[in-house]
Amino acid sequence: MKLHSILAPAIAALFLATPAWAAGPKAYVGNFKDNTVSVIDTAASRVIATVPVAAGPDGIAVARDDTQVFVSGSSASSLSVIDTASDQVSSTVEVGRGPQGLATTPDGRWLLVAVNGDDRVAFVDTATRAVSATVPVPKPHTIAIRPDGKQAYVSSQAPGNFALVVIDLPTRAVTASVPVEKTPRDLEFGPDGKVLYVTLAGVSAVQVFDPATNRMVAQIPTGVSPHVAHHFAGTTAGVVVVQGPGELMLFDPATRVASGRIAVGKQPHWVDVLPDHKKVLVTNEGSNDVSVVDLAGATVSTIPVGNAPRKVAAQHRAGTGATAKVSIDNFAFAPEQLAIAAGQSVTWTNNDGAPHGIAFADGARGMDLMLPGQGFSRTFAKPGVYEYVCSVHPYMTARVAVDAH
Ligand SMILES: [Cu+2]
Q: Of 3, 323, 351, 399, whose CA is between 20 and 30 Å from 391?
């Protein structure tokens, strides 16, 4: 009505004036040939900012507390650090020549940087952004950190000496160098840390590696040029970015058999999961866009970004504001796993046709009967993992992970 017609342009202008504003968690995409990062609001599925960074953006990692994003300039010698509140570069860290892959430790304290041109892995303190140690590794390319934080595996691309190099993180010492036959491309731990998914140049299969014995134990055939394989925590299917056919291949992590193939853009490069554990983003280096893939429905939408998008990393938390939301729908909590910060609240809403309820394992007050349309909120002051079930249907299980930041 009249009031609305007056207010709408004012509200629109407010949002245009604050480009960093996002309704949902944000994702950061490095445009290799533009020397920029595209910032995507994943709720609105659009780019809300474009940030100039160090030349040749290659590795990208979002800090575990979501406050900063690290981007390695592989044609430079520095990392650009983006402050996620303003979506501007807040500092530049000199790390050595040609930094490539990045990984953060589970406690959020350290960023490991594959300094390819200087044959070492650098440890950057995420709070002070100072390089505090380096470990020699020949031609390091990508880094995977075991979920328990005890070891890092580094793909080492020195010609004639291709290897997976193991760094013991508490002592920062190389404890093993496992030879591989072809150039290692990427490596990623499964969520329990018991397998490492490795891709090798020229091999049309993902190598399943056992970090307990440091041996390859299985192969998952993929099609030409698998680049990265992941089994993200909180998801049932594993995913492989297959460059030749331009596909995201799904696989069953238990049987190690392909379970689906979803067409994405040209020359897909990288993948990351959104905090809802239902959608993943795939960068398409050859078509200058990002595919948003809904894993359950196998539906795809496309977001145009800059020139030659390579790495993508999404924020880890569903809620960017003070309140995160869980919907009860079709006899399930969505999302089943939610990560928030201590002090944040979670609001549950029964969007189903049947009555449900909430019972917390820690004995805190829940809600025995939540009729359709009703809601419930709880504020989580202390870090921990809070399991809960539906009090009406105890098979409906879910959890809230609260971290210290
Ligand atoms: Cu229920």
A: 323
Task: Just give the CATH number of 323-403.
Answer: 2.60.40.420
Half-sphere exposure of 53 (CA within 13 A, CB side): 39
Report the distance separating Cα 295 and Cα 179, nearest Å. 34
323 pLDDT band (50/70/90 cuts)? low
Q: How far does residue 389's CA lie from ligand 1's centre (Å)?
A: 8
Distance from the alpha carbon of residue 171 to the mean position of ligand 1, in angstroms: 48
Q: Would you say 342 and 405 are in contact if contact means Cβ atoms under 8 Å apart?
A: yes
Rounded Cα distance, 247 and 75, in Å: 28
Q: Residue 191 is encoded by which pair of tokens?
A: 């969520």
One-letter amino acid of 5: S
Fold of 2-314: Methylamine Dehydrogenase; Chain H (2.130.10)
What's the number of CA atoms in the CB half-sphere (13 Å) around residue 159? 0
> Please, which residues have CB within 8 angstroms of residue 160's CB and are 6 or more apart in sequence?
none
Ligand 1 centroid distance, CA of 391 (Å) = 7
* 290-310 residue pLDDT tens: 999 999 877 899 999 999 999
251 alpha carbon – ligand 1 mean position (Å): 30
Kindly list the protein residues that place their beta carbon closer than 5 angstroms to ligand 1, a single-atom ion. 356, 390, 392-393, 396
